[in-house]
Amino acid sequence: MRFFPPLGALALTVLPFLSIAQTKTDKAEVQWGQPRDMKVDGDFLDVEEHVGDDIFVTVRRKKDIWLQKIGTDLKVQREQALPLEMGRDEHSWEALLFQGDQIHLFTTFYDKSERTNSLYVRSYKQSDLSPVSGIRKVHTIKALGKRAKGAFAVQDIEGKRIRVSIFIPIDDDEEKRRTEVLMFDSGMNSVEPDAIDRVMPYADDEYDVEGSIYDTDGTYIMVVHKYLEKMEKKERRKDKKPQYDLMLLIYPPGSSTATIQKLEVQGKFIHDIRFLIPEESGAPITCAGFYGNKGTSGVRGAFFLQLDRRNKEIVHQSLKEFDHDFITQYMTEKEEKKAEKRAERKDEELEMFSYDLDDIILRDDGGAVLVAEQYYMFTSTVCTTTQGGGQSCRTIYHYVYNDIMVVSADKDMNIEWAQKIPKRQHTTNDGGFYSSYALTVKGDRLYFVFNDSGENLFLKPGMKVQQFELKGKDALITLATVDSDGNVTREALMTPEKRDAILKPKDCVQMRDDRLFIYAQRKKESRYGFITFD
């Protein structure tokens, strides 16, 4: 089978030699480009898109943001300044979309004297980054003030259309949120004569949005948690049932009114769900996600659903409840007892917590794979006494990226297996810059690459998972390979010799030839590179 890849996140460091046992994998090779001078070429910001063999990145040079086009030789072929200062007006970056042969930069500007919030667009050619048009206004919201100025959301629709959602500020006497929608083709020409006033059927305090997606025919689908009335919520709490209903709001193309449909998954507390729309006309929509005990972030099991393409009703569902061994896998005896006591105090079954569902990946045999990662953040406060006897306090932001989870379903969307890839990454005040993972999909294998401790290479269930330390003597790049049967192997990506390079996370791109584009920096130098997998 073959997978179609999602985006991933990568953080890699290479530090001194560890041991002879930690030899380099024979499954991958790393190729580096020439050094970049960050003062001359700019400070790297993000990978924005890749089209064919071309990679588009943004860098900051002095005050401006520049868009650069990188070729297969890992060199900058073209670049274009994207200034946000327009005369005396300071614009805010909204989105950069790649459509057809054009690139569209969307920015916003709030005019406090006129009390308006406006969306603007500038367009460029993908081939040479030359401007196609000057800046032009897309839409203006009449604001109620700086704190109630409304907002815009710009979304790419299959690389063929652009959807602009306009969130209207709410007056005190209004209960329901109002959203207008504008649609454009790839050349930013309007494809609908009027905006759609898409009104939510619930008051703002009655629901939360879990997710949304467009079907290929233009149907807009929202998934919301619709909260119950007080008495009904109380009754369900007694029976340990969900205290909300999971609802599908289905807006036909051009319609402002939703068809409402309840999405029931065997009475489970669904708290994370993703949709995958197949390209084949009439093929069912695939959904996957997690459920828990109380509808919070706890994970007790996973599910896959298929929805009829026409009426969006469930035509198939498969659930997998994670057993005690899977939940406590890679916990030490102490950690396991602590988790069990916590569940016992709550009179609940044991569960995992804070897993973010990253993607659903289609297999060419009709099956699918769900990929998730345990992520959470918290803050702590440190106070010190000053010389004058006062107190100075500062807040520390903690970012925790732990185990990766993979759940596989066969062509009939029945869950076959679930597997965990253990890791421990905890950093502070860096936004998780060096954490998470990169995922490359090739053939019937998934390749996960992440920062790790070398002590974890030969990890077995029940052993303590060692914390990754950026400057630790045991730090190295780990390659974890998952095959079609769910078997996991761990190896060092490169020979653990001294190479003080660090790759930026969340900015690795799988190319069409299955190579992984990466960005590395060393002191004031930086490099682009490729990882090639066998």
How would you sum up this structure, described in words?
With 534 residues, this protein is mostly beta strands. The chain is 6% helix and 52% strand. It contains four helices and 40 strands. Strands 1, 2, 3, 37, 38, 39 and 40 form a seven-stranded antiparallel sheet that branches. The longest helix is centred in the middle third of the chain and has 13 residues, at 333-345. The relative contact order is 0.16. Mean pLDDT is 84; it is low at 1-21.
Number of helical regions:
4
Tally of strands: 40
- Content of β-strand: over 45%
Cα-atom radius of gyration: 25 Å
Q: Are there runs of 5+ residues with pLDDT below 50, and where?
A: 1-21
Structural class: mainly beta
Straight-line distance between termini: 15 Å
Q: What is the helical fraction, as a range of percent? A: under 10%
- Mean pLDDT rating: 84
3D shape: globular
User: For the report, how would you describe the main beta sheet?
Assistant: 7 strands, antiparallel
